Amino acid sequence: MKKILLFVFLLTACFSYSQNDTPITVKGKLIDKNTGTPLEFATVSFISKNPQKAPQGGVTDLEGNYSISITPGTYTVKWEYITFKSVVRENQTITEDKDYGTISLEVDVAELDAAIVIAEKTTVDIRLDKKIYNIGKDLTVRGGSASDVLDNVPSVSVDVEGNVALRGNDNVTIFIDGRPSALVGLDGADALRQIPAETIEKIEVITSPSARYDAEGTAGILNIILRKESQRGFNGNLQLESGIPERLGLSFNGNYRKNKWNLFTNTGWRYRTTPGNARSDTEFNSPDAQNKFVNERRVFDRLGRSLFTSLGAQYDINQKSNIIANAVYRYGNDDDITTNTIDRFDENLNLNEATRRIENEGENEDDVQFTLDYKNDLDDNGQKLTASIQYGFEIEQELANITETETTTNTLNDLEFSDQNTDERNALVQIDYELPIGENINWEAGYRGNYRDITTSFFLAERDFETSNTDLIPDAGLNNTFNYEELIHATYVQYGRKINNFSFLTGLRYEYTDVNIFQATTNETANKNYHSLFPTVNMSYEIKQGENLTLGYNRRIRRPRGRSLNPFPSRSSESNIFQGNVDLDPTFTNSVELGYIKRWTKFTLSTAAYMNISDDNWERIQQVVVDENNNPILTDNGDPIIRRFPVNLSKERRIGYELTLTYRPFKWWTINSDFNVFNVDTDGAFEDQDFTFNNTTYFARLNQKITLPAEIDFQTRLNYRGASENAQGTNDGIATLNLAASKDVFGENATITASVSDVFNSRRRESTTIGPDIIVDGQIQPSFISDSAFQWRERQFIVTFVYRFNEKKKRERGERSGDNDGDDGFEG
Fold first, then answer.
1. Pairing outcome for strands 441-463 and 411-437
2. Cys-Cys with 235: which of 120, 204, 231, 498 at CB 3.0–4.6 Å?
3. Where is the region Disordered (predicted)?
4. Half-sphere exposure of 628 toward its Cβ, with a 13 Å CA cutoff?
5. Is residue 518 part of a domain?
């Protein structure tokens, strides 16, 4: 009944004012009487004595606060929260703004055996400086990874290689629980694939970060919040999964809370195979090239095993302060086989050579992170102090054995062994202080120190067949040990205020960066240090209830790190190498964004226009490697070597528009869609080669969830990424369809879900790359033209079974939080 009342309140809120009544504001805060924990999404209702007057009310935010506009009158006021005893006050005459202060609700012992509510659908909470997507019952990501979750969040896209982009810009910073994390790892794409989807509670999309956040990431910040259950007693759920291609998984998340202690965990183990494929057809126009046409086909057979566990404890010192300690461990063990078949032809299409190159690679990875958080609500007026200490490390080793055979003669051409080791250590100290002044003013200040130390060593040895030497000889040109050390100090101050329907949050952040680079092989060192100010402004105007306009500005930075700076080459194949640039400078970006959100009874519209202008933008150049006489350097097989490397090439202007729609025509049918279109204009040149280009592209997503007869939930997700181009090539459009269905069993204590990812096996990147121009027979021609395709993961089918301990799912609260899209007002 409580949830039905809330549903009525939200539908009638915008009609609850008479033309002659001036709205007044009622506010306060709800907490758990026993622990002092804020009660989020609790109901506050105002029931008039006049039966002709519709009920009014709302819900609390994530901190347990509420601020509700009502018409003057006499009411019965109710404060309600599931499994807690309601507080009711009769005959409350409210004729002016009123603050009820902090109200404590007591657990209802009679309801302790009742359901602990599980959110049924993903909801959005709009704040001044971010959007929060609470991950609900999204069937298409059940049994998936953090990459799958991110790929379903509006404004975010994940390409076929797992690289994450925000509004089409891949320079996005990814946080775990609000901080840089070892869990994201050195290779963000691989790390995100190993974080189970069921461990994620919500995703914060921060396109206009306030001064509180790191300035890193020109596109913005994606903050992954891991689940930390806090229900009373013992609660949890166990998930089993299986699928095709072969995969098995087992995970558990839950907590035990008693008195002042709360113990929680998220633990999962997975075993999975991930087949993939790639191809490239390259034509070389250089007259010195022995092979004019090179056709390459690759097949990936990957076997991955991973363990993810998060163990934490919270101790409530009193109602206003607590300490949370958390340890996270992620282990990965992969065995991959890549079969590379290459056919090489002369200019008359006569076969010069056919080879098969097989790479057996084993990879072990250990990530550990320790975090200690302290929070103290210093008084009842919102004064707050928080402090965090974090330490983490990652150790990764990749061993590979490579053999190459000439298939027409069955002759062994090449034999290689490589060993790459990476050791990363990072530490963080952070302290934040909030000071409200009166009801509508908030000051905040803080400090954050980040330290990162990364050492990468690479060793390659190969057999010299020309001398018939059977020993493996180290390659001095590729072997290297590279150390990257970074220290960032940051301080900030920000000021927020609400004036009637207008709110603003403005701040200034200062960051000092000190970088030291050391190459053991050449005994070379380099040091760079720089500092800058990063102003931010975020404003919001509530046109009327359910309708808001926002405007934001911020300055951001993209720092070169590790691989982008390492000048020693690494290679994905014998003829394709990547080489860092030790002289690479940071990119600074100025961003502005104008947003609008409007809610109706069954329909929500959120839209934004944005512009980013970046100076000293990086571009990755591809060119054929030449010697001192400008002749192409060839491999033993006669293939020209193509080198990729980053340079501060251009000034980039990015202008875009995004639209997100939510429509619920019926209780059993929910439609979510988002559309993002953007134009990228880049102006720059390198070695007399013009890399200026202008490109407009878009991506769109359509999700539908339908409740079928027999209470079967069915969900579809359709993604489309439009064609695009860059300074050296084009990419074709990609369409992907995912399907899923679920059914509750055992009296709603368990759920079975079946899903198909990439139904048509179409998630494949197809592109064309054109090399820099050269002169051949007096004519200007591209040095090479390459058509390629890449599919990291082929179609997969997954079945999951979830069983809930002491949790019985109720749809009411899921719908309650779903129908309220959050606090659109001031957040300090």
1. antiparallel
2. 231
3. 809-828
4. 0
5. yes
502 or 815, greater pLDDT: 502
CATH number for position 257: 2.40.170.20
CB–CB of 163/172 below 8 Å?
no
Calculate ∠ Cα 199-202-207, nearest 5°.
135
Task: Assess whether 237 and 106 both reside in one domain.
Answer: no
**Do 347 and 492 reside in the same domain of the chain?**
yes
Domain's final residue, options 111, 140, 163? 111
The set of residues, in sequence order, having a beta carbon less than 8 Å from that of 171 and lying 6+ positions away, is 217, 218, 219, 558, 587
In terms of domains, do 237 and 375 share one?
yes
pLDDT at res. 7 = 39
| Residues paired with residue 349 on neighbouring β-strands, in sequence order | none
Q: Is residue 194 part of a domain?
A: no
What domain range includes position 76? 2-111
What's the pLDDT score for residue 564?
84
Q: Are strands 547-558 and 570-573 parallel, antiparallel or unpaired?
A: unpaired
Q: Total domain count for the chain? A: 2
Sheet of 200-206: strands edge to edge? 123-126, 131-134, 200-206, 220-226, 172-176
CA atoms within 13 A on the CB side of 747: 6
- Token code pair at residue 759: 């139904």
Cβ neighbours of residue 587 under 8 Å, at least 6 residues apart? 171, 218, 557, 558, 614, 615, 616, 617, 618, 648
- How many Cβ atoms sit within 10 Å of the Cβ of residue 230? 14
pLDDT of residue 812 exceeding 50: no
Q: Is 420 exposed, middle or buried (0-12, 13-18, 19+ CB in 10 A)?
A: middle
Between CA 595 and CA 587 the distance in angstroms is 25
Supply the DSSP string of 45-110, one letter for each residue: EEEESSTTSPPEEEE--TTSEEEEEE-SEEEEEEEE-TTB--EEEEEEEE-S-EEEEEEEE-B-GG
DSSP output for 616-637: EEEEEEEEE-B-TTSPBPB-TT
623, part of any domain? yes
Quote the tokens at residue 446: 């803080």
The DSSP annotation for 302-350 comes to: EEEEEEEEEEEEEEESSSSEEEEEEEEEEEEEEEEEEEEEEEEE-TT--
Neighbour count for residue 623 (Cβ, 10 Å)? 19
- The alpha helices in 109-180, defined as continuous H runs, are 146-150
- Give the tens place of pLDDT for each residue, 49-71: 777 677 788 878 767 888 888 88
Cβ atoms within 10 Å, residue 633: 12
Query: Residue 540: pLDDT above 80?
Result: yes
CATH classification at residue 99: 2.60.40.1120
Contact 209, 557 (CB under 8 A): no
Greatest alpha-carbon span in the chain: 100
Q: Alpha-carbon distance 494 to 508, whole Å?
A: 6
pTM: 0.76
CB 462 within 8 A of CB 473: yes
456 and 326 fall within a common domain = yes
Q: What DSSP string runs through 691-722? A: --EEEEEEEEEEEEEEEEGGGEEEEEEEEEE-
β-strand 411-437 against 384-406: which pairing, if any? antiparallel
Average confidence (pLDDT) over 501-524: 91
Tokens standing for residue 357: 């190159």
Query: Amino acid identity, residue 701?
Result: R
Nearest to 550 by CA among 238, 230, 206: 206
Side chain identity at residue 111, one-letter code: E
Tokens standing for 525?
Answer: 């060192």
Other C-beta atoms closer than 10 Å to the C-beta of 524 total 11
Sign of CA dihedral 48, 52, 53, 55: positive
The torsion angles phi and psi of 129, rounded to 5 degrees, stand at -120, 10
